[in-house]
Write a structure and sequence with these properties.
- There is one protein chain.
- By secondary structure, the chain is mainly alpha-helical.
- It has one domain: BFD-like [2Fe-2S]-binding domain (Arc Repressor Mutant, subunit A, Orthogonal Bundle).
- 49% of the residues lie in helices and 7% in strands.
- It is built from three helices and two strands; from the N terminus they run ββααα.
- Strands 1-2 form a two-stranded antiparallel sheet.
- Strand 1 and strand 2 form a beta hairpin.
- It is elongated, with a radius of gyration of 11 Å.
- The structure holds FE2/S2 (inorganic) cluster.
- The site of FE2/S2 (inorganic) cluster (FES) has 12 residues, from loops.
Amino acid sequence: MYICLCKGVSERVIKACLREGARTVHQVGLICGAGTDCGACRGVLQEMIEEYEEELEGGRTHLPWVAPA
Ligand code: FES
C-alpha cells in the first residue's frame, strides 16, 4: 500500500526507513522522499513514527499498521 502517492513510497519502504533510524517526518523524507511534495501524507508518516516508537518502548517487534481513513 502506498503511503506517499506523490513519491510512490510504500508502507514497506517507510517501515524500512524507521528501522534504519528515521525518527522525524523530515528524516523519513531525506531517506526515501516521502512527504517532500504536497505534504498530504505527513500526518500518516508522523503516526507511523509514533507507533514505531511505542513499539520500541514496548519491546515488541511487530505492530499491525493501520491504513489511513
Ligand atoms: Fe506524500 Fe504528496 S502524498 S508528499
